[in-house]
Design a protein that fits this description.
320 residues, mainly alpha, Alpha-Beta Plaits, three-stranded antiparallel sheet, 12 helices, 59% helix
């Protein structure tokens, strides 16, 4: 049975608590509660979890720091996350799952062979495609939960743009590193990019502050724990998830170092429009191309046995 140990109205605060417990290896979950968050742990782990959080709070009180202002209200941040998740679901209602002759998947999936041969827009379009209802539901929920924390810290436009860029960069890196037959779809690289951004912002806040060395290692450890827990399930694109985490971390470090304060409302709105235009433009490029079909399915034991599952072509549950 789970026990509620803390509650907050700030997504950034809830995310910080989750990082502390993840680094300590304590099972936990965050749940939305009206306009805020609640942190729950197994009842048997509650004393250990509270002790870890209390120690973290005490260390934070001792360290001189300047408060980092939120760039967006919790309500706006939540609205952005829920809207992004809803858009993933809505687009899946249009494309449906992969099917023979589906132009959406033929032209938009992150085919390693096509990307390295001059179709980089697939790195973006693939983020909007999903293999089945379970796949899109999982990514929609992850987006709705993770994006608000990034948005609250960086603003709607900046946060959304960085998450999109992290996901696209991860797909490009994966295409270059994988076998040419590799084909991936799904927003999971972007959601892991959000995790990387959040971790990096903990390392280098928008306003510089003294931060104990152990906290820096805690952030890294927590990110790796999340990758191992959420990004290595059967059929998952492990390399893509790892690249998402790394790309997000790099972008988060740059944002934390460059942005002394979040951009204003005009710039944020412009970045939202730009992100939408990038996705739309990439799809226009994808659908304007001549149908080329998906790459050959992986061959195991002399015969093709692959099927769409999770985020990539898999062979009986093993990554191709």
């Amino acid at each position: 049975m789970d026990r509620l140990i803390r509650a907050t109205r700030k997504a950034t605060q809830a995310d910080e608590w989750a990082l502390v417990l993840a680094a300590a290896g304590i099972p936990h979950r965050l749940e939305p509660d009206g306009a805020g968050w609640t942190l729950l742990v197994p009842a048997a782990e509650a004393p250990t979890a509270l002790a870890a959080l209390d120690a973290y709070d005490e260390e934070a009180r001792r360290a001189p720091h300047a408060a980092v202002p939120d760039a967006a209200s919790p309500r706006l941040a939540w609205a952005a996350g829920i809207a992004a998740g809803a858009l993933l679901l809505a687009f899946f209602a249009v494309t449906g799952p992969p099917a023979a002759g589906s132009r959406w998947f033929e032209q938009g999936a992150a085919s390693a062979r096509h990307i390295v041969r001059g179709e980089p827009w697939r790195a973006v379009t693939a983020l909007t495609l999903h293999a089945d209802a379970v796949h899109v539901a999982g990514n929609a929920v992850a987006t709705a939960v993770l994006l608000p924390a990034v948005v609250q810290r960086l603003g709607v436009g900046c946060g959304l743009g960085l998450v999109l860029l992290a996901g696209a960069a991860a797909n490009l890196l994966t295409a270059m590193a994988h076998d040419p037959r590799h084909v991936a779809v799904g927003a999971s690289t972007a959601t892991f990019g959000a995790v990387g951004i959040l971790a990096a912002l903990r390392l280098l806040p928008a306003r510089r502050q003294a931060k104990p060395r152990w906290k820096r290692w805690m952030v890294l450890a927590a990110s790796l724990v999340l990758l191992s827990m959420l990004g290595t399930s059967p059929g998952a694109d492990i390399l893509g998830h790892a690249f998402g985490l790394l790309a997000g971390g790099a972008l988060g470090l740059v944002a934390g170092a460059v942005l002394r304060r979040p951009p204003g409302a005009v710039i944020q709105s412009s970045l939202v429009v730009l992100a939408a235009l990038v996705v739309l433009g990439c799809w226009c490029l994808a659908l304007a191309g001549l149908p080329a079909g998906l790459p050959p399915r992986p061959v195991v034991g002399g015969r093709p046995v692959a099927s769409w599952r999770g985020a990539e072509w898999t062979s009986r549950g093993r990554s191709s």
